[in-house]
């Protein structure tokens, strides 16, 4: 079986500054990998390398067996297969919730308006916002906006979802609803890489947890192994700070 994502000896520098110093990691189909680590350790850069938003300095990133950055591989096809949700949800402010979710499928996938609307309504129901289709983003709470952003990413029917600290910008009382949507998505079999500081989510939902520091994966294992029996002293220090 070919892994959904295969990263091999990935290095990434910005100028003289090497941020990723040789990362090797596979993500299997339907796996949920949570990526934890201190601020500035390169977690976002790593996610951006997975869908070609950043070029790699050396090493390889393969998605569905195709190398990201290969000039013979259509990067748009790879990207359409990878949904991404960010800390700041960046909904289009002048478009309704429904229009935010249908824009990609209509413009990029050539879906008819009726089909895109039907798909969007199903997804909005899935994220608990069936009654908000006509609302404008500014009328929603942060947690609701983030759930729209998840629905918008899912509307492209990706095989992989990347989440970059999706709940970090939210008021505490909004976090649970967003995590619940993500958990449901994980249980439906979506392949997911989730950068998060929500250790409860990582413990309950992740198949594996990777601790990243100083540009490499310092520790990788089941949530129980990483959280209950960390081997690497850096992991222990980090967990002591955040738990
Ligand atoms: P994390 O997500 O773990 O907080 P990032 O991947 O955002 O870490 O950043 C890792 C390091 O890379 C930081 O020192 C950051 O300043 C640097 N960096 C990220 N993007 C760029 C860029 N486009 N140009 C220069 N430096 C960058
Ligand atoms: Mg980041």
From TrEMBL:
Residues 5-239 form the ABC transporter domain. The keyword Transport applies. It comes from Levilactobacillus brevis (strain ATCC 367 / BCRC 12310 / CIP 105137 / JCM 1170 / LMG 11437 / NCIMB 947 / NCTC 947) (Lactobacillus brevis). It comes from the Bacteria. InterPro entries: AAA+_ATPase (IPR003593), ABC_ATPase_HisP-typ (IPR030679), ABC_transporter-like_ATP-bd (IPR003439), ABC_transporter-like_CS (IPR017871), MetN_ABC_transporter-like (IPR050086), P-loop_NTPase (IPR027417). Keywords: ATP-binding, Nucleotide-binding, Transport. One of its GO terms (molecular function) is ABC-type amino acid transporter activity. Pfam families: ABC_tran (PF00005). This is ABC-type polar amino acid transport system, ATPase component. PANTHER family: AMINO ACID IMPORT ATP-BINDING PROTEIN (PTHR43166), ARGININE TRANSPORT ATP-BINDING PROTEIN ARTM (PTHR43166:SF37). Gene3D superfamilies: P-loop containing nucleotide triphosphate hydrolases.
């Amino acid at each position: 079986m070919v892994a959904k994502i295969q990263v091999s000896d990935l290095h990434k520098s910005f100028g003289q500054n090497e941020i990723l110093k040789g990362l090797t990691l596979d993500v299997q189909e339907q796996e949920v990998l949570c990526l934890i680590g201190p601020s500035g350790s390169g977690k976002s850069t790593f996610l951006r390398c997975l869908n070609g938003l950043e070029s790699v300095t050396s090493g390889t990133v393969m998605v569905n067996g195709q190398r990201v950055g290969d000039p013979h591989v259509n990067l748009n096809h790879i990207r359409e297969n990878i949904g991404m949700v960010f800390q700041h949800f960046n909904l289009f402010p002048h478009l309704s919730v429904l229009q935010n979710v249908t824009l990609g499928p209509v413009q990029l996938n050539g879906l008819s308006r009726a089909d895109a609307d039907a798909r969007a309504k199903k997804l909005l129901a899935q994220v608990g916002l069936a009654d908000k289709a006509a609302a404008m983003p500014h009328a929603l709470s942060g947690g609701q906006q983030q759930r729209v952003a998840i629905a918008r990413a899912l509307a492209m029917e990706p095989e992989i979802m990347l989440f970059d600290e999706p709940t970090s910008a939210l008021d505490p009382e909004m976090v649970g609803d967003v995590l619940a949507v993500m958990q449901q998505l994980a249980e439906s079999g979506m392949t997911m890489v989730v950068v998060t500081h929500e250790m409860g989510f990582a413990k309950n939902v992740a198949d594996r947890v990777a601790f990243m520091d100083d540009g490499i994966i310092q520790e990788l294992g089941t949530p129980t192994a990483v959280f209950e029996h960390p081997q690497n002293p850096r992991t222990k220090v980090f967990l002591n700070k955040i738990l």
